[in-house]
């Protein structure tokens, strides 16, 4: 199977079903959907009065924040590794 072949996968996120198309495997898409659902439920448990739109935005903000932290950490590790190779 080619990596460019698109898969259509249905996921349940916060009680809604979404059909997601992508080149990633269906199991990967289901994992992403599950993690988004978990994060939305976690945020809702701490802020039960948020409407769904605000909850979705806060979930996205959390996800991007985590992404930036991991990206920065990866860049630092790559820089350290390059320094080690240069010695």
TrEMBL record:
Q: State the oligomer form and interacting partners.
A: Homodimer. Interacts with FtsZ.
Q: Which residues form a coiled coil?
A: 60-87
Nucleotidyltransferase found in the keyword field: no
Name the chain's protein.
Answer: Cell division protein ZapA
One Pfam annotation reads ZapA
Which Gene Ontology cellular component annotation is one that this UniProt entry carries?
A: cytosol
Q: Where's it found, cell-wise?
A: Cytoplasm
Task: Answer yes or no on keyword Coiled coil.
Answer: yes
Alphabetical keyword list? Cell cycle, Cell division, Coiled coil, Cytoplasm, Septation
Annotated GO biological process: division septum assembly; FtsZ-dependent cytokinesis; septin ring assembly
Primary residence: cytoplasm
Q: Which InterPro entries match?
A: Bac_CellDiv_Activator, Cell_div_ZapA-like, Cell_div_ZapA-like_sf
By its UniProt entry, which NCBIfam families does this protein fall under? PRK14126.1 (NF010724)
What is the purpose of this protein? Answer: Activator of cell division through the inhibition of FtsZ GTPase activity, therefore promoting FtsZ assembly into bundles of protofilaments necessary for the formation of the division Z ring. It is recruited early at mid-cell but it is not essential for cell division.
């Amino acid at each position: 199977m080619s990596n460019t072949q698109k898969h259509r996968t249905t996921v349940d996120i916060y009680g809604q079903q979404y059909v997601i198309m992508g080149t990633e495997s269906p199991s990967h898409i289901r994992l992403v959907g599950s993690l988004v659902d978990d994060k939305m439920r976690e945020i809702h448990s701490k802020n039960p009065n948020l409407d769904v739109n605000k909850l979705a935005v806060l979930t996205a903000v959390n996800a991007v924040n985590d992404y930036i932290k991991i990206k920065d950490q990866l860049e630092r590790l790559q820089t350290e590794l390059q320094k080690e190779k240069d010695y």
